[in-house]
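[worker-b] picked up task from shared queue
[worker-b] task type: protein-ligand structure
[worker-b] ligand name resolved to zinc ion; SMILES cross-checked against name lookup, match
[worker-b] sequence length check passed
[worker-b] input payload:
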Amino acid sequence: MEPPHRPRQPGDGWVECGCGLRHWGLFGAAGLLLVRRDDGGRATAVVLQHRARWSHHGGTWGVPGGARMPQESAADAALREAAEEAGIDRASVRLRSEHVLQHPDWSYTTVVADELLPVEPSVTDAESIELRWVPVEDVAALPLLPAFADAWPSLRDRLDAPDQVEPVSP
Ligand SMILES: [Zn+2]
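[worker-b] inference finished, payload out:
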């Protein structure tokens, strides 16, 4: 269904950021952190993406995500990328909160969502080696994408916090 190399999209490109680094996504980037919960509502697992070797920081684990398009909200971008890269249907998830990493000329938004209907992520394009549910307690032991490794401790602490945003309809 998906071509092995999708066409270039309007937000694709590198930003020379005031922090001194280059980042992917002319309008920033966003990713989906999908959370599975037990009957008590406690977070038990999250969907992670084992990134293709050829990609930036290839071979590491992160969340499905990518460059935002012009005028695209972080939530819409995260849901679009999760559908493209992991076959995650937006009707199966419920948005919960957003966490923004703000740089001088760029931002990365982690969109946290709960699994509403059973989700079995799968590799649907060339950007992934594997997608799977990873137990929350096992995440930190994986070789993580550096930016995700930095964000994970505070994201993990907030996984069981009360909702911060209203659900957004597709
Ligand atoms: Zn920066």
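[worker-b] attaching auto-annotations
[worker-b] The longest helix spans residues 74-86.
[worker-b] releasing lock
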